[in-house]
Amino acid sequence: MLIGFVILYLVLSIGIGLYAATRVHNAGDYITAGRSLPMIVVVAMVFATWFGAETVLGIPATFLDENLGATISDPFGASLALILFGLFFARPLYRMKLLTLGDFFRQRYNRPVEIVISGAIALSYLGWVSAQVVALGLVFNVLSDGMITQSQGILIGAAVVLLYTLFGGMWSVALTTLVQMTVIVAGLLWIAYLVGGMPEVNGIAPVIEHATAAGKFEFWPPLEWAAIVTFIAGLLTMGLGSIPQQDVFQRSNAGKNESIAVWGTVIGGVLYFLFAAVPIYLTYSATLVDPAMTSQLLAEDAQLVLPTFVKTHLPLAAQIVFYGALLSVIMSTASGTLLAPSVTISENILKEFMPHHRMSQKKLLWVTRSVVVAFTVLVVVYSLWSLQSETSIHDMVANAYKVTLACAFVPLVAGLYWKRANNLGAGLAIVLGLVVWIAMEFVAPDAALPPQFAGLIASATGMIAGGLARPARIN
């Protein structure tokens, strides 16, 4: 019965996505939903897109394995990124009436800058989308009691997400997310209420007290240079590296006015941070209810603790709601983050190599859809490789934003807020950021100064040097 309800939910999601396709008439509808979405939908998209497999499975697993300080990149860095984007980037970018974030780099700098940064942005999504697909594989494996392997689950999950994203685009993301956010919030809060009523748990306070006694709420790093730098770098890798991202821009830019673009993103970021505590509470409660099961799964894969706990200790109705909510968070994140790189590749890289002066909006739409299919195939290959290499969901997400931190963040900030930013500065920022980051990854990946942070410093140095060497050229 549980599997039957899950299949029904997947069919419903596909149906909503296909209905959304009826609203898509051109590339603008597909990419930004015609910049017509109200506040509640923008908030839902921002919240649900980030509230994914990492939040429900990855963060709690990291909390159990280590402590609260180990989650500095997510949810702390992730929430910081959304709030900063809303306050400092959403308004000026919205006023430019851009289709993609890559368009900003073309307008502010030049075509080579647009191509390189757009490529870096698209590449950064490989780990992020793959983390969601790997999580889908894990869910199908748990649901079927091992009858569906995680590899087979990856293929099934990728196919479902592809099907409803392919035709509806941003309209599909918007409509499915509104449904999925309702399932996420209501479902997880109800399950938290059920778990809190268990005699072993008995509310929220005992769980907090137990976790505190176990040292799980240790947050600040030791007063040592290496530990402090690593801690700050963990916050900034996602807190700054995920700002120059198409998915964040796309959701903000889909609002029907700039006020919605700004505050929809900020509110979504705040809600994300607050609600990320719920899966942590549920997962840690499992250690009180069934310590033996928890210890066994911690030795195998901490990401299995919460889904296994729900399946073995909660009634069928709660299992249906939980897995519906879990599929919601994963699919909403996967669909949005699958669309973002595909749009960037088609609009900012491929389009200029085609006879675009003769390319209709309809043809551009089909090019974008073709890229969605191709990127999905790439995601599946990377997901299967990550499964073999035993890369955790948390690590896949944390590593995703290193490239954009090293080469895209400085050109974006300088382009918006420094009049002397120019093509030379942008070029130096990209080259120095990438070279230093990649070199450090090979030479000293575990250095006190993390490679991506060294790349960020080098990128800023390049922008400043180029900006001071030549006068700004604002297109």
Count structural domains: 1
Largest sheet: none
Shape: globular
- Looking at CATH, the homologous superfamily is Sodium/glucose cotransporter
Mean pLDDT across the residues is 86
From the alpha-carbon coordinates, what is the Rg to the nearest angstrom? 22 Å
The CATH level-2 architecture is identified as Up-down Bundle
Unreliable residue runs: none
Distance N terminus to C terminus? 60 Å
Helix content: over 70%
Number of strands: 0
Report the sheet-strand fraction.
under 5%
Order of helices and strands: HHHHHHHHHHHHHHHHHHHHHH
Query: What structural category do the secondary elements indicate?
Result: mainly alpha
Helix count, DSSP H or I runs of 4 or more residues = 22
Q: What would CATH call the class?
A: Mainly Alpha
| CATH structural fold name | Sodium/glucose cotransporter
Keywords:
475 residues; mainly alpha; Sodium/glucose cotransporter; 22 helices; 79% helix; globular
Description:
Helix 4 (53-65) crosses helix 13. The chain has a single domain (2-392), classed as Sodium/glucose cotransporter (Up-down Bundle), CATH 1.20.1730.10. It starts with a helix and ends in a 6-residue tail after the last helix. The protein is 79% helix and 0% strand. The chain has helices spanning 2-20, 27-32, 39-50, 53-65, 72-95, 101-108, 111-143, 150-196, 205-213, 225-241, 246-253, 258-275, 277-289, 291-300, 305-313, 316-350, 361-389, 393-400, 402-407, 409-417, 423-443, 451-469. The radius of gyration is 22 Å and the shape is globular. The chain is mainly α and 475 residues long.
